[in-house]
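COMPLEX REQUEST
Ligand: biotinyl-5-AMP
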Amino acid sequence: MDDTLRNYIASGWRVDYRERVDSTNVIAEAAGHAGASEGLVVLTEEQTAGRGRLHRQWLAPPGTCLLLSLLFRPAEPFVRQAARITMLCGLSLLETVRALHPSVALKWPNDLIVTEGGAWRKVAGMLSEIGVAEGKPAFLVVGIGLNVNVPPDVLPTLAPHATSLLAETGHSIDRAALLDVFLESVAHHYAQLRAGVDPGPAWREQLAWRGELVDVLTPTESVGGVLEGVADDGALLLRCPDGTLRSFAVGDVSLRR
Ligand code: BT5
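STATUS: Structure written out below.
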């Protein structure tokens, strides 16, 4: 199968395809600073400096994944709308993957995981970044890395919990067709947001491990408790053993085994 994305076009979007970049988020941010309007998709086959949150790396074997960044210009109130756009992108990613594999869920803050009993594997990650111009938030870049046709034997070189659609379904997937489904879903949810529909409730519905005992690992501490949900500002809400409710803006959550 000729699976290159070089000639990919998507109606309603402007696709900027690059064979290889440092990070699609970096390219999209430069475009944002240069005044590009929303609807831009930066798409690549290979990243030499793919970024995760908190200065972590995103690794992907060239030509096997979906690696892209979307540029948005959120309406006011900017920060709230930006959070909603990130949520709707997560929902779209979930819907796209769920058509191929039923057991997917969102893992706070922005991962897509396959769950199986108490086990979980990460199939995609998202990195949302706000661009600031003249001291004010000006645009939002949502970066998405989805492991599509990564062979199972390569997955352990990416991350301990990494999985791919190939590994989960047993067959390789046409990346262009998958991207079509995803971008159409984003366009649909974004139109709904502009019409006043908050994606928050639907997003929360899909959140993994609600009501279960989890550990939250932050840059400074590790805290156990029951995952109660996510606040309007996107913070994770944890009911601690002493009964207090704590909120976490940054961190990683894992199911207590
Ligand atoms: C994320 O960060 O999950 C955000 C990933 C966003 C990647 C996209 S690719 C297109 C765009 N351009 C970029 O430069 N970035 C975005 P975080 O939650 O911090 O997870 C990072 C961690 O995931 C790493 O420390 C590894 O443990 C793990 N990891 C790295 N590559 C992976 C992969 N391909 N699959 C699963 N896990 C991975």
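REMARKS: The chain has a mean pLDDT of 95. Residues 33 and 145 are 23 Å apart (CA to CA).
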